[in-house]
């Protein structure tokens, strides 16, 4: 099982500007001024040595993560603008298929890709929205109403179903078991844990963890326990999350590290980036979290063997694939 990130930016799409791309190109050319390149493969090898912020970006599309498992049916978490890039990757004339979309909540950045999801316009496809918000169908229809969008929801030819459950429910797709957790976020949100053949991938975006998260027995530590991959809302710095942005419904890189270490998560993927930060700023916050992870593990590890958790911490970016 693996997760594919199609959209990782928080709140709204925040693609690179011409000015920021020019600066990256300028810096990369300058950094390479002493190198001789025999061919393009050598250029590619050199690019691999640069930090991601120098050759790519963390921010483009809004939340959309594909869970690739041992089934012909497609599984997604959220329908942000990343869903459109997935649809483009299918090409024309894709075979009829079933798409499951697990919705964390209905804020616009998590549903705004759906009007551009071409499989929804093709008869023969089946799309099932799973989630907990009673207003799910109404919100998806409303964002396509005039004067906001030119094509009405009714123009979609696929069979579209809504599987809306009560809090505490779990789901199943083929052999994949999906457990859920209610999260603290304005209007509520839900996290999803996908389990197949003993591997677990958890999608937990738009979720705030206040001071109660530091107490013994915090229920998210149980939910995250031994996850192979945890995709976690790290929009803010710890200072922001605990001060001026408290109750805004998001978490931070330090809390991501602490909860993952306590839950012995193997791979932590920090997700839902703050659109106001530059790629360089996001990497700076990440570096602080990496050193905090070492310090925090030493504090925790009086008790256990010397294994450090999480074993890998990475920033999500569109196109990143993570094997469970
Ligand atoms: Zn969001
Ligand atoms: Zn939200």
UniProtKB/TrEMBL annotation:
Residues 75-273 form the Metallo-beta-lactamase domain. InterPro entries: Metallo-B-lactamas (IPR001279), RibonucZ/Hydroxyglut_hydro (IPR036866). It comes from the Bacteria. This is MBL fold metallo-hydrolase. It comes from Coraliomargarita algicola. The lineage of its organism: Bacteria, Pseudomonadati, Verrucomicrobiota, Opitutia, Puniceicoccales.
């Amino acid at each position: 099982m693996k997760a594919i990130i199609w959209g990782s930016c928080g709140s709204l799409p925040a693609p690179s500007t011409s000015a920021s791309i020019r600066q990256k190109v300028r810096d990369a050319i300058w950094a390479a001024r002493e190198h001789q390149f025999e061919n393009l493969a050598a250029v590619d090898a050199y690019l691999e040595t640069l930090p991601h912020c120098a050759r790519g970006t963390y921010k483009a599309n809004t939340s959309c993560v594909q869970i690739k498992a041992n089934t012909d049916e497609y599984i997604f978490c959220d329908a942000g603008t990343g869903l459109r890039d997935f649809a483009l990757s299918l090409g024309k004339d894709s075979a009829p298929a079933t798409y499951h979309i697990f919705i964390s909540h209905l804020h616009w950045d998590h549903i705004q890709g759906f009007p551009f999801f071409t499989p929804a316009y093709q008869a023969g496809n089946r799309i099932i929205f799973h989630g907990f918000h009673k207003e799910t169908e109404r919100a998806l229809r409303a964002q396509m109403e005039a004067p906001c969008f030119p094509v009405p929801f009714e123009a979609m030819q696929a069979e579209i179903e809504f599987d809306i459950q009560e809090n505490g429910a779990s789901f199943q797709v083929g052999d994949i078991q999906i457990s859920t957790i209610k999260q603290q976020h304005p209007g509520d949100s839900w996290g999803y844990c996908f389990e197949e053949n003993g591997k677990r991938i958890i999608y937990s975006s738009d979720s705030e963890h206040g001071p109660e998260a530091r107490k013994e027995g915090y229920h998210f530590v149980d939910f995250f326990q031994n996850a192979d991959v945890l995709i976690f809302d790290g929009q803010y710095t710890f200072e922001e999350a605990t001060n001026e942005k408290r109750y805004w419904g998001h978490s931070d890189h330090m809390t991501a590290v602490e909860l993952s270490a306590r839950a012995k998560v193997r791979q932590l993927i920090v997700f839902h980036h703050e659109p106001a930060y530059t790629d360089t700023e996001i990497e700076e916050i990440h570096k602080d979290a990496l050193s905090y992870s070492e310090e925090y593990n030493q504090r925790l590890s009086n008790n256990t063997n010397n294994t450090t958790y999480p074993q890998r911490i990475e920033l999500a970016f569109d196109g990143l694939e993570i094997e469970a």
